[in-house]
Amino acid sequence: MEKKGIIIGYLVFVVLAIGLYFFFNHSSKPVVTENQVQTFIVEKGEGLNDIAAKLKDKGIISNVKLFELYAFLTNTRNKFLAGEYSLNKGMTLNDLIKSLTSQAVAQEKTVTIIEGLTNKEIGAVLEKAGLVSQTDFLAALEKMSQDQTLYSTYDFLASQPESNNLEGYLFPDTYKFFKDTTSEAIIKKMLDNFGKKLDDQLRADIKKSNKIIFEIITMSSIVEKEAALDQDRRLVADIFWKRLKENWALESCATINYILGTPKVRLSFDDTRTPSPYNTYLHRGLPPGPINNPGLSSIRATIYPLDSDYCCFLSTSEGKIIFSQTIEEHNKNKAEYLK
């Protein structure tokens, strides 16, 4: 019986040795027979599974499981470096792993997305930076907004309509993108940032206020365009929340400028009658969705409005906001400051 066990153990060893021989022999052969150099980007935070899937999609490897197994056996599965690589489709598995775990050729571009830009305007900024075209960026937003997995990946999107095209959730910030990045990668990075900035405390306080994230972001996008100073933003948010509570029209000039596409310093009466569901002069309640991508200051102002007796406000030509407690006072201010 003991002799039989030894024989079985020996056979297992032989089979394992032969398997390892063929495995490592395979690692010295080209992963894909085709010989073609192309750029490959490893984004920060991507793991072995993500990298393997991207390599397969680009045709650099033919077998995801084999790549993952080799990385596991060579103890390199956690050693991949973010960056930009020039990979040859004819590389051996061994050389491919070595390249991806060596110092990458990091060619990053720094891009600042300021607060209050629309998705279309962000696309223009990215195109000017030489990263992706505005058309490709907007098409990627359209496609991703229809992807159901996106809503399970980013829980803060759960309360927004799918038709929103992610307007409002592309967090304004200074970003570093690899030169050959994709629109999808840029969008995911901005959504990731939104998820980090809207921290647990902010989410808890939104819930405590009996509002949903979609309402907060929609209101924040309006506040973003109506006021520039933090205290003014909190007062403006208080006025707008009170109007909603009283079922008054918000009458936000920012929503009209969003409809017009080309902002005006002073709106005409006809402008305020422009047909659109986003027209908060004609329609009560919040517009169908955010009108831009607001910054953290406006989001916080909307979550934590500053209680006051004000009911109206206006902006002077110098950008100063004049608040009033009554309609009569507001009309007087208009006569004085909007000559």
Describe what you observe in this structure.
α2 runs antiparallel to α3 (64-73) and α10 (213-226) crosses α11 (230-245). The chain is 48% helix and 9% strand. It has three domains: 23-100, Endolytic murein transglycosylase (Dna Ligase, domain 1); 109-197, no CATH class; 212-308, no CATH class. It is mainly alpha-helical and 339 residues long. The protein has a two-stranded antiparallel ribbon. Strands 3-4 form a two-stranded antiparallel sheet. The protein has a two-stranded antiparallel sheet with strand order 5-6. The protein has helices at 2-27, 48-57, 64-73, 93-100, 119-128, 134-145, 148-153, 183-197, 200-208, 213-226, 230-245, 253-260, 296-303, 327-337; strands spanning 37-42, 83-88, 108-112, 174-178, 312-315, 321-324. The protein is built from 14 helices and six strands.
